[in-house]
Design brief:
Blueprint lengths: L7 H15 L58 H4 L3 E2 L7 E2 L4 E6 L2 E7 L5 E3 L8 E9 L6 E10 L2 E12 L3 E7 L2 E8 L11 E10 L2 E7 L5 E2 L9 E8 L2 E2 L7 E5 L2 E5 L4 E8 L7 E3 L3 E2 L8 H13 L1 E7 L2 E6 L6 E8 L8 H5 L3 E9 L2 E4 L6 E5 L4 E6 L2 E9 L5 E8 L10 H8 L2 E7 L2 E6 L5 E5 L1
Antiparallel strand pairs: 1-2, 3-4, 4-6, 5-6, 6-7, 7-8, 9-10, 10-11, 11-12, 11-13, 14-15, 14-16, 14-23, 16-17, 17-18, 18-19, 18-20, 21-22, 22-23, 24-25, 24-26, 24-32, 26-27, 27-28, 28-29, 30-31, 31-32
């Protein structure tokens, strides 16, 4: 059971993701009477698709900055997250309420309810045209049931102090792919329910827009186009860096752990070793994810990178759900009280992972390294050890002073099997690795690409061969 001090954002994400997993209808929460909603404006101010900020793009608008930064204008006025966590909010209940350290609790023991500030979600930008950055806050209203109603609330900046400008309910148990303030409007990309969705399980994406009307926040458009169902295409071509292994488990800046998606494949850096694998999303619930066996290089990794890498690989192996978190990616793993969230921030995709079977052929690969549990070896003369994969399923091998052939089969998920064939038997000298290369190819089990290099993993932790084009 989540405690009051548990991160509100994580609590919301756990609730939303667990609801998606269970897909049970919402229970009616205990709630006080709600305020009358502000009338909606016409959709003439609807945000266009080009205005929406995707999860892989940085918010470049000069009006929008992240919630981790203090906002300072020429006047010296600024709004702080601390002030917003202790501000007054209206438009949610009959009367305005004041948060204390991000929380408001009301009702009685038999029918309690609470309002929580959602961490890491606040955005800043000018809402009222005075040239000073205001704030938009996202709040979660819970009343004891499974429902979790999300509100978007505006706080205007008056001399560095937040002034309430109302709130509007977005929906129950939804995820936000992106949010930004642009040209005085609040643009969000958020999940919504579509055909076949239960109350618990919004699996479509839509855009909504909010703006001030007579000094109060109002919804000015809802869904500028038909909602689009979430699919693997949402992840395709994206690249992310891990920032948290779990609640209060940040990843140090000098440890690089990444994940990138291409088609049904994923790859990245585990903090020390490179890795790759495949993943699938459930047909009924596209936020349910299964990550297949991972293949990785086998370098010995000192702590802290080694320990983090081991925990990260274990977490990916237990992954069950993924989701959006205001421009971040989260992956849920574990079960029960041991359930945790991996949290990633978006990063530019510098390399596009090519389809494996298309990349083996048409290139002559030079052997540059060998990594196994006991050693890491750099090959002195890579040009003396080469592989050329042919479309007919054969491999031409140049191994120092010897020439060899082999046959291979490779699958799109990274599996490979190599059968050595005819080999010349010249004596190449005591430092040659001719025989070693040919023998190790016979134990090939998996292959993947990282930063333009080909990696071939051998069976039973036998190590990894690395090749460059």
């Amino acid at each position: 059971m989540f405690t009051k001090k548990f991160s509100t954002a994580l609590a919301l994400l756990f609730g939303a993701l667990l609801s998606l997993a269970a897909c049970v209808p919402a229970e009616t929460p205990n709630q006080p009477p709600t305020a009358e909603p502000v009338a909606q404006a016409t959709a003439t101010e609807a945000v266009t698709s080009t205005e929406a900020v995707t999860s892989t793009e940085a918010v470049t608008s000069t009006e929008a900055v992240t919630s981790t930064e203090a906002v300072t204008e020429s006047t010296g006025a600024m709004l702080s997250v601390e002030a917003l966590k202790n501000a007054t909010y209206s438009g949610i209940y009959e009367e305005p309420v004041m948060l204390t350290d991000g929380v408001y609790e009301g009702g009685d023991p038999a029918a309690p309810y609470s309002l929580h500030y959602m961490d890491n979600s606040t955005i800043f930008g000018d809402l009222d045209g005075d040239g000073v950055d205001d704030a938009v806050v996202f709040l979660q209203d819970s009343g004891g049931g499974t429902a979790a109603f999300i509100y978007v609330a505006a706080q205007l900046n008056q001399g560095g102090e937040p002034v309430d400008a109302g709130a509007v309910m977005v929906d129950d148990r939804v995820q936000f792919k992106a949010a930004a303030i642009e040209n005085g409007q609040v643009n969000v990309e958020v999940t919504t329910r579509g055909p076949g969705d239960a109350d618990c399980c919004a699996s479509y994406l839509t855009h909504k827009t909010y703006a001030l009307q007579e000094g109060k926040l109002a919804e000015t458009s809802s869904g500028d186009a038909e909602p689009v169902r979430v699919s693997a295409a949402e992840l395709d071509g994206t690249s992310w860096r891990l920032v948290e292994l779990g609640e209060n488990e940040p990843v140090a800046d000098d440890v690089e752990i990444t994940i990138a998606f291409a088609g049904d494949q994923l790859s990245g850096k585990g903090g020390c070793n490179n890795y790759n694998g495949s993943f699938t999303l459930d047909d009924v619930n596209p936020f349910a994810i299964a990550i297949g066996p991972l293949a990785s290089t086998r370098m010995l990794c000192p702590d802290p990178a080694g320990g983090l890498e081991s925990a990260y690989f274990d977490a990916l192996g237990q992954a069950s759900l993924w989701g959006y978190d205001f421009g971040n990616l989260v992956i849920s793993h574990g079960s029960g009280e041991g359930r945790k969230l991996l949290r990633f921030t978006a990063q530019p995709t510098e390399e596009t992972m090519a389809a494996p079977t298309d990349s083996l052929t048409g290139v002559t690969w030079q052997w540059v390294g060998l990594t196994d549990p006991m050693q890491q070896v750099t090959i002195d003369s890579p040009e003396s050890y080469t592989l050329t994969f042919l479309d007919d399923g054969s491999i031409q091998i140049h191994a120092d002073c010897n020439e060899a052939t082999a046959s291979y089969t490779a699958s799109a998920d990274g599996g490979i099997e190599v059968t050595p064939g005819v080999t010349t038997l010249a004596l190449c000298g005591p430092e040659s690795r001719s025989e070693e290369l040919i023998q190790k190819l016979g134990f090939a089990a998996r292959y993947f690409f990282q930063d333009g290099h080909l990696f071939i993993d051998m069976m039973a932790d036998g190590g990894t061969l690395e090749f460059q084009p």
